[in-house]
Amino acid sequence: MKREHDIIWHQTIDSTNSEAARRMSEIDNLSVIAAEFQTAGRGQRGNRWNSKAAENLTFSIIVRPGKDGIPAIPAAGQFVISEITALTTVRYLDSKGIAASIKWPNDIYFNDSKICGILIENCVREGQLLWSICGVGINLNQETFPSDIPNPVSVKLITGKECILSDELLLWTECFDHVADLLSMPDGKEKIERMYLDKMYRKGIRAAYLDTLSGETFYGCIQGISETGCLRVMKEDGSLKDFAFKEIQYII
After folding, report:
1. Which of 30, 72, 122, 225 fits a disulfide with 66 by CB distance 3.0 to 4.6 angstroms?
2. What is the pLDDT at residue 49?
């Protein structure tokens, strides 16, 4: 179903996720806070999200489960919001002719280069997911990046085409509506999970990782994710291990 997305643009703001949190009580469900430039954009692991002004798509969408055709989500199943946001972005990039994959939990890669980062912030109450703020940063038109940013790439570097930010955001919200619709189907959650697994970066491929808790570097093969959203990896000795966020690092 096509949903109404109130899109609120800012020329400059500290962080679209922070602004969404500040305005949570006053703006509608599925509203989008977008900015041409963030002075304090945030990424995963407490990192700062760096982006040149007016060259990339940086925004946050507010999702309140139980409204606008999105069913209620138990706290234990909140990872589905990450899956929906990542799959939306993969679908959007596919529309640009870019075959992207999902680097668990929700970075988006083209080959071995990062094209998008996603930061999900959830609020849980009485065993239910009350709301989610899904922050998305897509490299669109930027062609040069700071030297300390590892393996970045952009839509323009891949396709050679310039993008108009507002048009691309509308296209992303259309993709979001399509993916979110799946959640209301009888087997929707399972279908979303299968789609996520199909798009996982390095799934089924032997590669190097760092166990950040033990400091061990090892080779393993990603098998999928656990019921709680942990990354499941088979090590070379045949053992399976589930890694929570920040417990494993990809060696690229």
Report:
1. 72
2. 53
